[in-house]
Design a protein that fits this description.
The protein is built from 11 helices and 9 strands. A hairpin with a 5-residue loop joins strand 1 and strand 2.
């Protein structure tokens, strides 16, 4: 791991939070996880790296002006950063989250409004089909339409062997990580039109086959395939469907679901560090905007430099 960090530092000439200097503070958290309970450093939502190894506030350009988005898991982590950057680009959002995560959701709403956007809160359990339908109905009622669907919410729990992986956890992973993607896409697409987009959050694990996250990895592979199939259905209607496949990201999901040993390995990417949520959220801005007008059915790989050939 030291050689990876040294290589990253040598390549950049810097040692900052965004290069090789961002060390994960090992900690324990329970589920559902609260971003407000994380030990420092706080996840970064609105700043992006600069060439000199520092970072600056994200520079918006009105790329999503007037757009309306649904973002699942929008209370914290990647979802929170997406909601904030969407607001900076001119979009309003309705964020869905578990009822136990209300404090984080309120903080996201405050940040979104600080950057000029509207943020509608919808606490719910998306493993239930009827709640997915109600989320879409409420979004249309409050915002008037849906232009962007961000399927982002996820569950994971490390288990080292298939013999120890319970049937209940396997089902929970699929009920959380892929079934709502189907339900929400099915219901939201009834209200979407040409130029609108669906952005799904997959994972590098779908490509590397992480053994201690077998169920999670399987659902993320399903999301990649779902993205490709839905794209082939919807592209004739002018609706683009893409996925983002992050590597390790400093979010509440990490300390609440990973062992201390696993957390210690999060910097073992070619870049020598995990990502910040802001670095993943920029991909969701790109895919939701006209900057990516020629991209559909594809996956972006902000994974710290892991070559996946997929």
């Amino acid at each position: 791991m030291d050689s990876v960090k040294n290589a990253a530092k040598a390549a950049t000439g810097q040692d900052s939070q965004f290069t090789s200097g961002h060390q994960v503070p090992i900690q324990d958290m329970s589920q559902p996880s609260q971003q407000s309970d994380m030990k420092g450093p706080d996840p970064v939502n609105t700043e992006v790296p600069t060439e000199d190894g520092g970072y600056q506030t994200y520079r918006a350009a009105g790329k999503l002006k007037g757009k309306k988005a649904i973002i699942t898991g929008g209370d914290s982590g990647i979802g929170r950063a997406i909601a904030i950057l969407y607001a900076m680009e001119g979009a309003d959002s309705m964020i869905a989250y578990l009822p136990d995560e209300q404090k984080d959701a309120e903080e996201t709403k405050e940040e979104v409004e600080k950057h000029g956007g509207k943020c509608y809160l919808f606490p719910t359990d998306l493993t239930k089909r009827e709640n997915c339908a109600e989320l879409v109905k409420k979004a249309v009622s409050e915002m008037g339409t849906i232009n962007i669907l961000v399927n982002n919410a996820a569950y994971q729990n490390m288990i080292s062997s298939i013999s120890e992986l319970s049937e209940e956890q396997w089902l929970k992973a699929f009920d959380t990580n892929i079934h709502p993607y189907f339900y929400l896409s099915k219901y939201a697409l009834e209200h979407m039109k040409s130029g609108d987009t669906v952005c799904n959050c997959a994972s590098v694990n779908a490509y590397i086959g992480r053994p201690d996250l077998l169920d999670y990895t399987s659902t993320k592979g399903a999301i990649v395939s779902f993205t490709r199939g839905l794209h082939n259905q919807q592209i004739a209607h002018g609706i683009r469907v893409n996925a983002v496949c992050p590597g390790p990201v400093w979010t509440p999901l990490i300390p609440s679901t990973m062992t201390k040993e696993a957390q210690d390995q999060l910097s073992a990417t070619p870049m020598g560090r995990p990502a910040q949520p802001s670095e993943i959220a920029t991909c969701f801005v790109f895919l939701a905007s006209q900057d990516s007008s020629m991209i559909s059915g594809q996956s972006l790989h902000p994974n710290g430099g892991v070559v996946v050939n997929g």
